[in-house]
Amino acid sequence: MLSIKFPPSSVIDQGHCGSCWAFGAVESLSDRFCIKYNMNISLSVNDLLACCGFLCGQGCNGGYPISAWRYFKHHGVVTEECDPYFDNTGCSHPGCEPAYPTPKCVRKCVSGNQLWRESKHYGVSAYKVRHDPQDIMAEVYKNGPVEVAFTVYEDFAHYKSGVYKHITGSNIGGHAVKLIGWGTSDDGEDYWLLANQWNRSWGDDGYFKIKRGTNECGIEHGVVAGLPSDRNVFNGINTSNDVLVSSF
């Protein structure tokens, strides 16, 4: 199993919105800020989801992961404290009904003592990672978690443990998540380790492993990332081929 000191990883719930593309990006960037600047920060999915607009895709109906990272570079993203996620009801995954509409962009912190502009945190780059597994591992080792997009089949919904490989069921859409590491099972099977955002009741306490090195479900061809900027980090606000995804 990979042994790198990363910040504690959390599993969240995207709820009734197809916002996986935003969660995968924001959660990965948050971790990268923690790693580079030794700070505890949680960035806002809601800012990206509501304010990026058509450049990122269709909001709760899916978006483009690479465009999320470009948004971080050009517009920044506020903290979760400033703009919390709009859906806190949770649900059973995948495919929560009814589907909620994309929230409106407000550009105002919920807390009166915070300023939207000063709560922004930025990226300095947005890039696709080469699909060679060695390149993906090198990127994670050097800079932290990455966002990956892959095809979801019916059998993935029933994953509980072990190393996932698609066996049966039809294609039911695309999905994006945070890739946090890799390893080899007791049976000698190489895998990627990922954090989903379907809450802890799904999968292995919210996490899953998928076969590594064979581009299982296209997961090694949809890797994107970016590097965090120190802009607004030290101002006293916080010291502690593109694929549209997804249907979920």
Automatic annotation (TrEMBL):
<keyword id="KW-0645">Protease</keyword>
<dbReference type="GO" id="GO:0051603">
    <property type="term" value="P:proteolysis involved in protein catabolic process"/>
</dbReference>
<dbReference type="Pfam" id="PF00112">
    <property type="entry name" value="Peptidase_C1"/>
</dbReference>
<dbReference type="InterPro" id="IPR000668">
    <property type="entry name" value="Peptidase_C1A_C"/>
</dbReference>
<keyword id="KW-0788">Thiol protease</keyword>
<dbReference type="InterPro" id="IPR025660">
    <property type="entry name" value="Pept_his_AS"/>
</dbReference>
<dbReference type="GO" id="GO:0004197">
    <property type="term" value="F:cysteine-type endopeptidase activity"/>
</dbReference>
<comment type="similarity">
    <text>Belongs to the peptidase C1 family.</text>
</comment>
<feature type="domain" description="Peptidase C1A papain C-terminal">
    <location>
        <begin position="6"/>
        <end position="227"/>
    </location>
</feature>
<dbReference type="InterPro" id="IPR038765">
    <property type="entry name" value="Papain-like_cys_pep_sf"/>
</dbReference>
<keyword id="KW-1015">Disulfide bond</keyword>
<dbReference type="GO" id="GO:0005615">
    <property type="term" value="C:extracellular space"/>
</dbReference>
<keyword id="KW-0325">Glycoprotein</keyword>
<protein>
    <submittedName>
        <fullName>BnaC04g02450D protein</fullName>
    </submittedName>
</protein>
<keyword id="KW-0732">Signal</keyword>
<dbReference type="GO" id="GO:0005764">
    <property type="term" value="C:lysosome"/>
</dbReference>
<keyword id="KW-0378">Hydrolase</keyword>
<dbReference type="InterPro" id="IPR000169">
    <property type="entry name" value="Pept_cys_AS"/>
</dbReference>
<dbReference type="InterPro" id="IPR013128">
    <property type="entry name" value="Peptidase_C1A"/>
</dbReference>
